[in-house]
Amino acid sequence: MKRILVLASLTLALAACNEQPAGEPVVRAELGEAVTGEDLAALEEVVPDIEQEGANPASVCSPVTFEDVSLTHCIADPARHRIRTGLAPNSGELAGRIEGWAAGRNEGSIAFVMNGGMYDDALRPLGYYVEDRNRLKELDRGDGDGNFYLKPNGVFFGTDGAWQLIETDTFLRTIGTRPAFGTQSGPMLVIDGNLHPEIQDNGPSKTIRNGVGVDADGKAHFVISNAPLSFGQLARYFRDEVGARNALYLDGNISSLWDPATGRMDANRVGPLIVVEKRQ
Questions:
Q1: Is omega for the bond preceding 187 within 30 degrees of 0, making it cis?
Q2: Which residues share a beta bridge with 114?
């Protein structure tokens, strides 16, 4: 746990260099920006022990290594889990933290929670957001700076165990019924089995990142890196190891996971959350 908290503090410091004025979108344009020198060395020093702890049979999250990078891979199974969205609190001592959202909840009902998309300085979702069938933010098809606006971006959504992940324009054209949950982010990492055309095989930007993909069996795979990695590496993991036809980038620098079974509770500043609950 100590190492997780140290990592959280460091990633917050890295993200702080991109702070925007109050109320403005938080722009994180990471495709071509490298984390180097002391910052990269510090990240690499802090995180390796996460994988050495090994898999916990009570957890649906497992440590894996891909292209020499330590990752944590969490699987949500429609037969065993429900998915919904939530928002980290925007005020109080635990504002912007998963821990603040978790306070007072039944920990035994939670499989895991991961940050679920990008947000502005007030912790509001940048794009489409549905919670308990209530649409709190409209679909964003506009242009702008940062990863969210690197087209195509996409929407992860679902109802009653049927989970999907598709491009934003396809979502607009084909989805006529409001889902039980939904969150928009970007860019897409994998599109119909192919890597996003703007993503380099192994670009210079390396940092802590996370994303989600859905496999052919309808399971949702959530991956968060425990060490800095490139967009290309994360995208290839979803394509080659997960076998996801579509995968979506959720965020970087602030990527966070709560896994009650292992005691992992990352303390980065987040906004939208994806909550995976156990079916009773």
A1: yes
A2: 257, 274
Kindly state the average pLDDT of the residues 104-118. 97
pLDDT digits over 179-208, tens only?
A: 999 999 999 999 999 999 999 888 888 999
Distance CA 168, CA 129 (A): 12
Q: What ranges do the domains of the chain cover?
A: 2-278
Give the type of residue at 92: G
Rounded Cα distance between 238 and 171, Å, is: 21
Could you report the per-residue pLDDT of 35-63, keeping only the tens digit for each? 555 555 554 444 434 444 567 888 999 99
Whether 31 contacts 149, CB under 8 Å: no
Helix 37-46 × helix 2-16 angle, to 10°:
160
What confidence score (pLDDT) does residue 214 get?
A: 98
- Residue 197 phi, psi (nearest 5): -65, -20
Phi-psi region of 121 (alpha: psi -120 to 50; beta: other; left: phi over 0): alpha
Q: Is 182 helix (H, G, I), strand (E, B) or coil?
A: strand
